[in-house]
Amino acid sequence: MYTGIKLGFCPIGKFVFSHDDAKLYKKLIEEKMDRMGIHYVTIDDVIKDGIIRTHDDVGPAVDFLKSQNVDCIFLPHCNFGTESAAGLIGKKMGVPVLLWGPRDNAPQEDGTRLRDTLCGLFASSKILTKLGVPFTYIENCEVEDSIFQEGLDTFIRVSNVVKRFKNARIGIIGNRIDFFWSTIVNENELLQKFGIEVLPFDLVKVVRMTRELAEENRRDYLNEIVELKKRVNLVAISETGIVNVLALRDVMYRLAVENKLTALAVESFMSITEELDAMISFAQAMVTDMGIPCICESDIHGAISSIIAEAAALNTRPSFFADLTVRHPENDQGLLLWHDSFPISLKAPDSEASIGIHWILPGINPGMCHWRLKEGEITIIRFDGEFSDYKLMAHECRTIAGPYTQNTYVWVEIPEWKQFERKIIEGPYIHHTACIYGNFSNVMKEACKYITGLSFDSVGRD
Fold first, then answer.
1. What is the rounded average pLDDT for all residues in the chain?
2. Is the pTM here over 0.90, yes or no?
3. Domains and CATH numbers, the chain
4. I need a labelling partner for 216 at 20 to 30 A (CA). Which of 47, 185, 266, 305 fits?
């Protein structure tokens, strides 16, 4: 379940209190992580019993964990806590830090105590703060309490968001659409502040590659179209157009794999549709379903939003890239999430699927996706910024019934609608949002602790 994230397991003890009890809790925590399917690395090979007890243990533990390329570290306090060691390990590692300790037992009959874990946590948290080390904390509880498992789950998701954000590499096919000023971004600043790379691809070359692949694999694509027609109605789109759409899907996915891209942003109209005899929406939907968010209208910030949305879900499901459009005609908190290239894997079971005409822009080549999305809880996410001030907004909603409309869509009810509306209007946001099934606003908020230069922008209760 938690593939892709390697956790450095670094239990903290001290020369006082029961070392046997510390070893017991180390074992209990490991067993819990094993059951959860968390990929972790211990320090057993370099530290006696795999538990930090003195300041001298810092160097060997840090060197080993760095050699293992861990993405985050867990500092469970197992009997008390060597505060200087905990602080320095967090500082030297420079990755997300999880702090927790088990609830202490009652004093023994003779009045002595095996552990003072909570006291040690108070000390270590102070040193982490003193050293400027951000950390995530799970409230003091038992190993088998639900809050512990939920906290571990959240921390792994947070670490995945941080990892994917800091390693984002976005391919942009074509240019920014000329009349979309709202998608103007500062690529230089994204690189300088966050290390996010934007790799441009010449639209002419991509079109040429698509045509060549369409001709080379035409028979295979025609066979695929026969199967596609069993689940999707093809309306008005030409055979050449749908073949080109399938070929473009393969070209874009190949570019992403060969260049180690985490997302694509595409100049999705007008010229590319004219050259390929089809709107390319279904190609983008398929690439997104293949694990690479493929964002329309050259929206680089939207691509970043989609990367971290999928990271919060541990890359187990696709995001969908939606316009915030009209309000619900009957529900004052209702809103239409709409566009033209939502992944078909997210389609509602009772919704027919078709690929057809573009009703907004008459005369443009067919190829727009048309289906309604499934029911569920959704998190709306937008990374954006102006004047070097970058923010991350995330808010949770749930699907509701609403009127039929064309293209890919779903109606949602947004708690605190008035605050949400004002948040988008007052910025620095636009109408484009990355959406993911599940509740992840807490993950986004926590992840911002670990990304210098990015602040979480709460909406209402978030």
1. 95
2. yes
3. 7-166 (3.40.50.10940), 169-457 (3.20.14)
4. 266
